[in-house]
Amino acid sequence: MASQHKNVNLGVADRDFKYFIFDWDDNILHMPTRIYLEKKDEDGNWIDHSVSTAFFAVIRGDTENYRAPDGDWDKAFKDFQDYDGNQESGFLKDTRDALNRVLSGKVQPAPSYTRLKETLIEGRLFAIVTARGHASDSIKEAVKLFIDMALSKDDLETMMANLRGYRATFDGERKVVTDQEVLNDYLSLNRYHAVTNPGFKKWLNDVGGEEAMHENPKQFAIRDFVEHVARLMEKSEEGLGHRSISVGFSDDDVENVKAVEKYIQQELSRHFPSVKFVVYDTSDSVMKNGRKVVVAGQLDFDF
Hints:
- The chain is of the alpha/beta class and about 300 residues long.
- It is built from ten helices and nine strands.
- The chain has one domain (about 10-30, about 95-295).
- Helices cover about 45% and strands about 15% of the residues.
């Protein structure tokens, strides 16, 4: 963070409470990470064949023609994990590469790229919920990289003014601290869930027990974020914590979108009747912002 602008935007006190949950791959960024499969050729032989995440979403149900090497899906998704000894995670390298391609104009931004950028500039809370297996810190570092590369100097100054405004409004914090401290505090308030990470699985068992282990992990991660936001609102000053809370979820995987819609309708909307939920299906690259579905509530999200 280069900016040390000390403006404080107290106008954030009058904002609505809109929060966002993002899938990462092909939703925020088109990542270069490959999935290593075997494909059946015309003679019935299985040959090595790597695919993109977008292509895998299309063919993953085609078990007749595609399979994991030796039936081992850990081998197929070996680049979706963190490994000890790496100075920089593969996830961070791929994020940098994906951002460079967007910023150079080589590829179009993924559907939720701009929404994440706006969320960061506005200083709103968010969660990253991905099927990857990286540690939470790896995902947080990728978000920091996104901030460093995708936000302009003016964007950074606006973000810091908004974040300082939230600190002054909700925490009564008016002392001068560095931009880096403000940013670190903000990022620590968000959630970074990679649902195939061993640490996430352990956390899921510790927090939710046996029942949670049988629940769709992405759904549990979404619920965790909603509960987290609700707790933060309860701690805010009287009169500020009783506005309606709105949560938008975006994912490029059609099956995930359907599962989340059903989960919100059957579970979350009952447990959080005052929260408005909107789901965005970003699987169709032709639709700039994805297909919008108001699952609960009538808020018009401009996503």
